[in-house]
Amino acid sequence: MARRGIGSVGPVIRRALTRAALRVAVKVARPAPPPALPVFAMGMAFINPLGLAAGFDDDGTLLAALALSGFGSIEIGTVRTPTMLRAALAHIGRHPRHARIGINLAATATGDAGETAERWRTLMGLTWDAADYLVANLSGSRGAPGRAESLTAQAAMIGAIHGSLARTRGSHTPLAVKCALEHVPAGTLGSLGGCGVDAVIGVSADRDLIARAVRDLAPLPLISVGGIRDGEDVATRLAAGAALVQIHTAFCRRGPFFPRRLLANLATGTMPRGGG
Ligand SMILES: Cc1cc2nc3c(=O)[nH]c(=O)nc-3n(C[C@H](O)[C@H](O)[C@H](O)COP(=O)(O)O)c2cc1C
């Protein structure tokens, strides 16, 4: 029990330290814009392919500071309740939008399928006009495996709600599904396009799995997250066909200016192993 407690505290403390460093850095530094590495995914342009994964900024309070870090996209959340969401939306409204903003959502499942669907509808409806893209988080907490056996069924249910919102609103806010690739049964990813999903955020550091996911999903884009530590990892994921990448742990370990170093390396094609 005690050992599990210590193990789980590490990333949380690292995240808290990086959050504090970010708040200070943004007060003392006025960094120049990061190099432009434009990419196109989910029907929209991103200033670069590097995103911040969910779980760092739960409620959008750090959005302005994070945008200075150089990220091309910032995913806030996971947001689970309308109350949490309303607080986050207030911050998003004040954010100067040069980075794309994703909102990672997870409706708590109840035993009642209709009630669970209604929760998804409420969360997606509230975020529809505020986010550049929505994420249905079907991975477990901290990117751990979710209930993979029901991935297609859940994606179909969420995709149907998303489609009906698009018709009602007369607009489209792209929907990505986040899942742990290790736990997706072979052949399942290919069916997600038919569920009305616009992209998959695949959690995995396994190169073969990532390459297979890219093939299975095409033409849907894969956003690759998990185990990216340096520029070479980013370059490898992009070379494997990932449209975008996201980082979490490396950002917490390497600090507020790590994304800029990483993007500068990507722009010049210099990829120091273990470095920026
Ligand atoms: C402290 C911590 C909190 C996280 N919280 C969330 C979360 O709320 N929602 C989510 O989808 N992923 C969450 N994640 C998972 C990350 O978004 C990411 O998928 C995972 O850490 C793998 O990327 P990394 O190897 O770069 O850390 C969290 C991860 C950590 C370490």
Describe the overall structure:
The chain has 276 residues and is of the alpha/beta class. The chain has a single domain, classed as TIM Barrel (Alpha-Beta Barrel), CATH 3.20.20.70. 42% of the residues lie in helices and 17% in strands. It is built from nine helices and ten strands. The strands form two sheets. It has an eight-stranded parallel barrel, surrounded by five helices. A two-stranded antiparallel sheet has the order 1-2. Strand 5, helix 4 and strand 6 form a beta-alpha-beta unit. It is globular. The chain starts with a helix and ends in an 8-residue tail after the last helix. The N terminus is likely disordered. Bound molecules: flavin mononucleotide. Flavin mononucleotide binds next to helix 1 and helix 8. The site of flavin mononucleotide has 22 residues, from helix 1 and helix 8.
Topology:
Elements: H1 2-28, E1 39-41, E2 44-46, E3 50-52, H2 63-68, E4 73-79, H3 82-93, E5 100-105, H4 113-127, E6 133-137, H5 151-169, E7 175-180, E8 199-203, H6 207-217, E9 222-225, H7 231-239, E10 244-247, H8 249-254, H9 258-268
Parallel strand pairs: 3-4, 3-10, 4-5, 5-6, 6-7, 7-8, 8-9, 9-10
Antiparallel strand pairs: 1-2
Flavin mononucleotide binds at residues 11-12, 15, 53-55, 78, 104, 137, 139, 142-143, 178, 203, 225-228, 247-250.
